[in-house]
Predict the 3D structure of the following.
Amino acid sequence: MPETSRQTSWSRLLDLARWPGARDIAARFAADPARPARMTWALDDLSLDLSRTSIGEAEFAALFMVAEAADLESFRARLFAGETVNGTERRAALHMALRVPEAPHLHAQANASAWEEACAYAVAERARMHRFVADVHEGRLLGATGERFDTVLNIGLGGSDLGPRFVCDALTQVQGPVLAPRFLSNVDGHAFEGIARTLDPARTLILVASKTFTTEETMTNAAAARAWLAAQLGEAAVGAHFAALSTNRQAVQAFGIAPERMFGFRDWVGGRYSVWSPIGMSVALAAGWETFAAFLAGGHAMDQHFRSAPFTENLPVLLALAGIWHRDALGAASLCILGYDERLRLLPAFLQQLEMESNGKSVALDGTPAAQPTCPVVFGAAGTDAQHSFMQLVHQGTDLVPVDFLLAAKPDHDRSDAHEILAANALAQAEALAFGRDRASVETQMREAGVDEATIAAVAPHRVFAGNRPSTLILFRRLDAFTLGRVIALYEHKVAVQGCLWGVNSFDQWGVELGKVLARGIRPLLEGRGTAACAATAASVSRLRALQAAK
Ligand code: F6P
């Protein structure tokens, strides 16, 4: 597609945003009584409701034009074909292969495509993982003192932590864990001390989760855990208590973990897309293999939908387009994620890495500045907790903050009263954001409550809700493992689609590099060796050292 077409499509979209009424959600409902049904799409029981946005037919037409100009169709095909969509690292992004079901043809090697080869490797490694999990659960693999493991400690960072941490938390809240999952990510010694204090080394299985097996924080924590275990149970115990989840065989062996206790994946799995790989070992150990398998099946169901559904009915595409409308047309610089479900309390942290590490870029694929604003700042919390912290700003602040609401129709507990309160609050928030409350109705309500006119005049302006604040509603029957898999894959593909439309590489993360390099140079300064090149750093180092030296 020629560059002018790209420019034309974006211009048309931005022109639409300049029309008076571009944000008017109530007007859309007034013009189209069938809007709630027309603006809701579903994959089985999982639905995406975009009615509470200001997107109408003209906006969709313009958004689809942007998608066409970005050649989304061919991007999707290249993604699944295992082509090098991550150009700066010369890698494919084939994490979808990790969730394909076991199938006989996946073992055939001759003339296999990149996709088939990836699937065959992933399925074989998954079978190894399954055996390991079964051996731990059934007591064939024991700790060095002959005791069964009751705790799994995952040591990892970023994608080697956030995915498994979130999924374990979500999937073990209802039935309780098989092995208690614990997570150590921060290199802060307080984190290690805090966890080590609560662990019984004889019953703890330690997973060192690191794609590269070189991440300084993870390797520092892994070394501390190794020393801690050896001090308690003896050096010979290390082999029985450690396993590695990594792509780096040599470094794993150098650490002292035997090849049969290393579970691998390939470089086509980005860290933030790796919970489906052996990095998800803690999920399988904590929630059980069947649950992990159902989680993968959910991800696969969303892959098939994304791969085959027309864009006009494609949930990840539609969610992505809504995000583009809010970010680029309406200028919303943030995105709020509200799972009205305690099991989704870690979803915002997970999505922060997925969205911001993927699309937090200001350089386009060809090295030129990105032509449009890209990823918004992602934040969120579980509802209703969020209502009592930051939702004030989302309702009445000066910035437009689009919200994604997620809600299960059926809870997995017996307190239906609590679930109804939860669901009512989610829907009430969406309604308040979209339709607000005007001055006249505020005043009427205050008058009816017997408030005097002077107070009404003073207080009413503060009680007005402007409305026209967009949200999406993702609704599903239950939040089981299958649906959690669908939800995560929905967001993964949404992020890829947005990256394609923005023309950035969603699969690299060079923005984390500079800090790592500088930290290596600053460390000796903290020990009194050398001089900082940066005046600000030099001053901070000397203040820090003076405080350290003080009694
Ligand atoms: O933060 C950068 C990053 O490379 C992430 O993409 C990744 O998830 C994390 O570090 C951890 O990397 P590793 O799994 O190699 O330790």
